[in-house]
Amino acid sequence: MSPHLATDFAPHLAAGFSSGLPADFAPEFSAAATVVAAALGAYLLLVEPWLGRRMYASLARRRASEPRALVRYFTLTVTLWWAFAALTVTALLLSPGVTAADLGVALPGDPLFFFPVVLLFAVIAVASGRSFRELAKEGRHIPGRAAIEAMLPRTGTERRLAMAAAVTDGICAELLYRGLLIAFGVGALGLDLYLAAALSLAVYALAGWYQGGTGVLVLALFGTLLTGLYLATGSLLLPIAVHAMISVRDLLIPAPELPRAQGGTA
Fold first, then answer.
1. What contacts 64, CB < 8 A, 6 or more positions away?
2. Domain residues for 181?
């Protein structure tokens, strides 16, 4: 970030300390920022579900025959997410009437709530991850593994990229789906806060279409939790932490061995 952009961004960050979205929450998007935010919202609603399904299907077809297919998939995914995050920051900088706190870039006001919830989900992620590994060792069914099997890493490089993709997903998805879309729905579209949150949740759920109807339902339930945490704290920090921990756990589920005919072990 250049010194000029850093200077412009400082007053936005200065306002970024809150303990919940206020009742009079109404970010004022400039015309230019409205165009940027509307374009991102349209992409997330109309393109992301289709593109995500297409990309995953392509990965699943190439996974066994192309050794670097997953590396390319994760690299492209991480690049796209950070590009969208940069556009979100651009929309913020283009709007003097929008603060960082309006997009959830704020510290939660109640650490007595924040830290126990983070600890709870850390325990859940570690315990369930360990359970998944035990099930894999025993050759038993792992819930949900089949839906994301093509994304599960098998090499050290793939595991490192999987963790990077999981953390990126936690940060950038929350910034866009929770931070930007809710603020845009209230500030630019004039929606009630909870209606804007419900619509952002619906858009987020559609991103699970690459896993079919079950994926949409799973993301709807998970997104409901994350949206509730955001509305309760006014900060994306807790949803990001929970999202990232669960994503890391999911992407580190032991992958099934490939059959010999596909280049794996017997």
1. 258, 262, 263, 264
2. 29-98+106-257
Asked whether residue 24 is domain-assigned, the answer is: no
Residue 16 covered by a domain: no
C-alpha triplet 241, 245, 131: angle, nearest 5°: 150
Q: Residue 131: which residues within 8 A CB-CB, separation 6 or more?
A: none
Count up the domains in the chain and report the number: 1
| Strands 17-18 and 107-108, bridge-based pairing | parallel
Domain assignment present for 21: no
Round to whole Å and give the CA distance between 41 and 89: 14
pLDDT digits (tens, 9 = 90+) for 40-61: 999 999 999 999 999 999 999 9
Do residues 40 and 92 touch, judged by C-beta distance below 8 A? Answer: no
Q: Which residues contact 74 (CB under 8 A, 6 or more apart)?
A: 158, 161, 162, 164, 165
Q: DSSP secondary-structure letter at 28?
A: B
pLDDT tens digits, one per residue of 117-138: 999 999 999 999 999 999 999 9
- The answer to whether the beta carbons of residues 78 and 151 sit under 8 Å apart is no
Distance CA 202, CA 170 (A): 18
Single out the residue of 26, 10, 16 nearest to residue 193, CA to CA.
26
Rg (CA), the chain: 19
pLDDT beyond 50 at 167: yes
Q: What is the DSSP string of 102-137?
A: GGT-SEES-HHHHHHHHHHHHHHHHHHHHHHHHHHH
Contact of 246 with 148, CB cutoff 8 Å? no
- Let me know if residue 15 belongs to a domain: no
What's this model's pTM, rounded to 2 decimal places? 0.88
Task: Please say whether the beta carbons of 121 and 246 come within 8 A.
Answer: yes
